[in-house]
Amino acid sequence: MATLYEGYTLCGVGPVQNSSNIGILGVEQGRDIDYVLVTDSSRSITVYKVSDQKPTGSWSVKQGQIISCPAVFNTQSQEYVVVTDDRVVRVWKEDDVNLEKAFKATVSADVLRVLSATDSEPVVLFCCGAVRFLDSLLASPQQPIEDVLTEDEIIRWSTIVKAEHQLVVLFSTEQRGEHCLYVQRFNPNTLVKHRIETEPGLSAPISFSATCRGSNIHLLYLYLNGSVYESVLPFRSSSTGAEGVQALSCSLCLSLPLGEEKLMSGAAVVLDEAHVAVIGFPHPSAGACKDYLCIWNTHFQTLQASKEMAGRIYSQLWCYSGKLYVPHGKMLSVIPFDCQKSSLAAAMGKLKQTSRSGKDFSVEIWNICPNVKSALTVDQLVEHIKTSAVEDVQAEVGEFIRRAPQADLQLAAGRVALELVSRSQTDANFYPQCAFLQLLETRYLCYSVCPELLSLAMVKKDFHLCQIAFQIFSDIPEAVTCACLKAILSTPDLEMETVNLDTDSVIFMKELTQAHSRSDEEGGQLNGFCPPALESDVSDTPSNKLQRDPLSLDMSCPVGLHKGALLNEVLQTAYSDRSLLPHLKDLTVPQVIVFLQYLRFLYFKYSHDAHKQIRALRTPSISQIIDWVCLLLDAHFTVLAVAPEAKRLVFDLHKFVRSQVKLYAELGKIEGSLQVLKNSKQSEDFGMYAIQVIELF
Amino acid sequence: MGEFKVHRVRFFDYMPSGIRALAFNRDIERIAVARMDGSVEVFHCSDRFFQEKIIPGREQCGIEGLSWVGERLFSAGLNGGITEYDLTNQKVKYTVDAYGGPIWTIAGNQQGTHLAVGCEDGTVKLFEVNEDKIQFERNLDRQKSRIISLSWHPSGSKIAAGMMDMIQIFNVETGHSVHRLLADRGVGTSRSKECVVWSVVYLSDGTIISGDSVGMVKLWDDQTGTLIKSHNVTKCDVLALSVSQNEDSLVAGTSEGTVVQFQFISMVLGKDDKEWVRTRTFKNHTHDIRAVAEITTAVVSGGMDAQLVVRPLLDKVEVRSAASALRKIHFPHRRLVSCARKSGLMLFQYPGHLELWRLGESEGKGEDDIHLFVKRNPEKLLHLKVKGEDHIRCSAVSPCGEWIVYSTASSLRLYRLHCDNNNVSITKVLQISTELSANQLCFSSDSSHLFSASTQSSVHLVSLSQSGCKFVGTLKPKSGERTIGIRESSKIIPASEDGKWLASANSDHEVHIYNLQTRKAHCTVPVYSSAVTAMGIHPTTNCLFMMYADQQMCEYSIEQKQYTDWSRMVQRKGLHRFWMERDTPCLNVMFNPQHPSHVILHDTYMLCIIDQSLPLPDDKTQFYNQLTLKSLPEEQRKSHSHAFKVCKTFKDILCVELMSDQSLVVVERPLEDVASQLPAPIKQKKFAT
Questions:
Q1: Which residue of A has its CA nearest to B358?
Q2: Are B366 and B379 spatial neighbours (Cβ–Cβ below 8 Å)?
Q3: For residue B35, how many C-alpha atoms fall within 13 Å in the half-sphere facing its CB?
Q4: Do B641 and A688 touch (CB under 8 A)?
Q5: Is A696 within 8 Å of B609 when comparing Cβ atoms?
Q6: Which burial class, exposed, middle or buried, applies to B107 when counting CB atoms under 10 A from its CB (0-12, 13-18, 19+)?
Q7: What is chain A's percent helix, strand, coil content, to nearest 5?
């Protein structure tokens, strides 16, 4: 769960002067994580020590000059950089008092922003889309700046992302309603243009946020209709070197609820891989008031924390080192937050909740992934999975599982599995079954940690993996259970027999079918099971054979051993019948009949061989079987009523169930009498007087 | 540990009397209960509903209503009189005739200045409550039919009176009727029957709530005199209503035995417009509920089935504990049976008579290990009717079986019993009038003295001999610290075996110890917050063992005038959770002379022997371990046993006594037997209804 802690005010927001109606130009990281640099639109730049809520330095430009971009701190040279009047770059140190006396250089084109990342040279982004390192620009300020963008293309947003000593500048542009994303990489300098493609009818994205995760840049952008899309860009330029505009694939990761009021603005910022902070959108349960800061979980689409913000919201939101900076009303508030990794399994109590400290994930660009320490870190493993051959990957995963400490493994298993699954999904030749089995055996996986695994196994027809997953996962959704059931039922028995399955379950099936034949040989019911004669049935079925033995039921197993073993696993999964029922309707008629035949087979077996204890670890219980029969009958009532091939099956089942009902009715009578006997014994009625001996110990 | 021969006695036909009225006093947290036989009991609500006081009734005094005025308790009944009780001495203080025929209801105003009674002749009579008496003030406008129920507006300016087919609202100032609210009769055949407004409640916002014989709870507006809402609660009668102090919860008792709760809550969350909504139904009674009381944390109800039920409202209870559990009080919290330990006699105390029985005898083993063959059946020796109209307050038989004594509110009578072979005869030895009437009676163990606990914590001594009896003196507590104020009357008086010590406890929670040789007060046990329910003086160590209503126990050394080490250890280690959660008080403390470390206790549901030489159980040990111990081999029992040996073989115990031949007498009164003697309930449970 994410938490928003009690916030505090860092500084006031001055009266709005400029046209953009924004009081604060930007908040940037200062010389370490406790310092921020606030550039307000009224000519001043202030450094605050956040924990003390105190300014430690302030500079302002002369009357008439305008600060045109947020000031940044160059951590390499320990200098502040700002641009005034679009073209004048000013550089000064902490102890410089007067900005006028500081170093300044006039460049030949309008500067949009100076972007700075920790421990690297600041990058200057020009309005025309060109990019220069600050030191090279200052070396010759008047150097010509090329036009990258077309004339009416305007940069809407820009950021810099750094990971593994590699810088990437991202900026989005708008041109006649078309939105593009430019990715500028350095060494070698490449600029890739992506077209942001979303559903038609969406207006411009109103807020962007980029993070670096693994070797990918995750870009999140927010639309006015509340949709949050995510795009993943590789960190290193792909070697394909495709020219021209590439379409940027994106996926909807969150739909924010909208209030009745029409929204004008809003902002979102990524907090970690699962959490997004959003401002300007209404709280789903707090009415029309939209002045809320909310943390949403993108995995589960859930609201995790929220805080009401007083005063006007400026649709600006920054996040630095565990604190959110929100200008609202006449102040800039700092709100510390905490996001814990959450999975549905954790929420359901099926996974141990571990609070994590952003160990393998950097919240923002300056918070780089920790350096590789040992030979096999999660990050490295994940990297290897992306590229290595199947055999290598399997060996490495095995090695990793063996060597990683349990606590780390718990976190890493899901990530590794996700990575393996995503590679397998894209690369048809890549399917590390061993690695999956090993990961499953750690028992740190559950369905919600890696939802794709089971469907992948189904696609690959890897029934062994399916079986293990069914045994281990306790949180498989009913839809997936049904999909698996369908796949199992539709696979021919011949194909199924070749599959390598958990031996225990196969032995159980063998015993079950053999028991049938044995009892046939002996030709009698061993447990003395003899239901009352089915007089009514005699008239229903004139068959002589039936008359002789009212229970001459079809006791042959309708499916092969392996298929039976897999079906047994399905029967033992946890489910809620209301959720299962609609999915169960997807089964085709032949599937329903085969499944019902199999359930009937199990039911008959269990009723007849109740005295026989087949030694197996996991066997479906009689109540599970009955529950599934009920569900199946409910889901396909009309089909079973109409389908001619089902007639015999349903008739047999009914006959047997009726005999059982009669039997249990008799048992109920016996129970009643026994109960009375027991009660009468308890209330020892001795009349009015007795002399007894009691013994106390 | 040992075997006991047990005389299981079930022929004591004790019938608790039905409950007619309840009155709750919030300030002193006491609830007063009036029964059909005219007795009035006072329970302490915050001391586990311990029955502190019993004022016995008398013939022909049907109490119809109870009302507290401050700390004073008044009742009114069909004999037409208003009675005030002397709660300190547990007796009737005086009775004033209202001269209006039978009185159906009595209600005191919140200011504590006036009492109103509703009479058969159709008048509401106002009485002024003076310092020591009540004084008739005036009548309100006389109505045509009897006044069944009354309720004062909290301001004291108006009175609502429930009658036949209507409710009248009176202005107290003028005495005139302000509004007349007509209650509808039932439909169908009951159309011809009058609608009796059994109960009314007047709320401070002007709402009048009525419960009637049609089964409706109706809400009326006193400004307009109109019906606001009506709830059909039952097909039978709604007999009683009670509202909580802050007027957000109302309970209605019906003749089907259900209590229906209404709550004043807002229909939309967060909105302020509240309504009375029917919320819960409790079914703890089999018969008519004649009285209910909403005491904020619980609903107390009583009726024809004679049990007092305390149903906690769990939303109002902050800490769930044994004190907030459902409680059903069936039997009085004092003993109705006394046993002559040396001669095997039992004296049963009924309201109007005494019965003396001789226990049977056994011979050898019966058909199984448990039951013994009964050689001689028990025998009723005596049926002694009480003289006068007053019911018996207390009684006792001497250990030797020669003396019988009983006391009513007005007199104390002592009889000598002569038994030669089969002829039993008695002679009256002593009759003392009012001032010596006792709250509790007890004989010394050698039957040479009678102790009678009386008013003002004093104990009278009467010496008994073959020739006759003689009043020898009065024991009074040291009059040092409390010279002013009335002493509560004493209640429980056990005398020590050697005849040297006597201890008496009063309902002020004080326990005084007297030296019988010097006839002086010896010392006082430190006062504990809970009432003493039973105590006993150990025959050899002379330690006083006390049981309290909150299930705590203390052992106090009389000679050293301090708690014993064992008692301190119990206090330090605490008692087991299961012990503390029992909901009936311990009613007797006995000692086994053959095992000096054993203390025998009992409550309604169990018999317990505490072995002080064994370790105390902590919360982790199995408390009820008798079955476990039984299954263990002899040598392992020692390591598993603890001090509390609880026997749950017996149920609904009225009395346990250890006779001098080491046998136990257990007098049970099975609740099924009580239920079978009750009249048939209005509504009987049929299958699946």
A1: A689
A2: no
A3: 24
A4: no
A5: yes
A6: buried
A7: 35, 25, 40
- Residue window 648-687, chain A: list those with CB within 8 Å of chain B: 686-687
**How far apart are alpha carbons A358 and B280 in whole angstroms?**
52
CA–CA separation, B520 vs B480, rounded Å? 14
Q: Which residue has the tokens 């997807």?
A: A586
Q: Where are the alpha helices (DSSP H) in B344-440?
A: none
User: What letters, b where the CB count within 10 A reaches 16 and e where it falls short, cover B471-494?
Assistant: eeeebbbeeeeeeeeebbbbbbbb
Phi, psi of A19 (to 5 degrees): -75, -30
- The closest alpha carbon to A172, from A155, A148, A196, belongs to A155
- Give the pLDDT confidence of A557-613 residue by residue, as tens digits: 888 888 988 999 999 888 888 888 889 988 999 999 999 999 988 888 888 765 466
pTM: 0.58
Q: Is A303 helix (H, G, I), strand (E, B) or coil?
A: strand
Q: How far is CA A654 from the centre of its chain?
A: 45
Task: Say which residue the tokens 């109606």 belong to.
Answer: A21
**What count of other Cβ atoms lies within 10 Å of the Cβ of residue B270?**
5
Q: Is the ipTM of this complex over 0.95?
A: no
The verdict on a CB contact (< 8 Å) between A689 and B11 is yes
Dist CA A457 CA A450 (whole Å): 12
pLDDT at residue B180 is higher than 50: yes
Region class of B306: left (phi > 0), else alpha (psi between -120 and 50), else beta: left
The residue count of chain B comes to: 689
| Total residues found in chain A within this entry | 697
> From CA A60, how far away is CA A80, in angstroms rounded?
13
Calculate ∠ Cα B513-B517-B523, nearest 5°: 20
The DSSP code sequence of A395-424 is: HHHHHHHHHS-HHHHHHHHHHHHHHHHHHH
Angle at B94 between CA B90 and CA B97, to 5 degrees: 140
Sort A119 into a burial class: Cβ within 10 Å, 0-12 / 13-18 / 19+: exposed
Instruction: For tokens 């009081």, name the residue.
Output: A23
Among A10-24, A61-75, A256-270, name the one with the lowest average pLDDT: A10-24
CA distance A81 to A105: 11
Phi, psi for residue A142 in degrees, rounded to 5: -90, 15
Alpha helices (runs of H) in A317-366, residue ranges in sequence order: 344-347
- State how far the Cα of B680 lies from the Cα of B676, in Å rounded to an integer: 9
Q: For A519, which DSSP code?
A: H
Q: Do B6 and A694 touch (CB under 8 A)?
A: yes
- What pLDDT does B182 receive? 92
Structure confidence at residue A540 (pLDDT): 40
Pick the closest to residue B599 from B610, B608, B587 (CA basis). B610
Q: Does residue B6 contact residue A692 with C-beta atoms inside 8 Å?
A: yes
**B232-243 pLDDT, tens digit each:** 998 889 999 999
Name the residue facing A694 among B9, B374, B649 (closest C-beta): B649
Q: Kindly identify which residue of chain A lies nearest to residue B632, measuring between CA atoms.
A: A697
The b/e string for A43-70 (b: 16+ C-beta within 10 A; e otherwise) is bbbbbbbbeeeeeebebbbeeeeebbbb
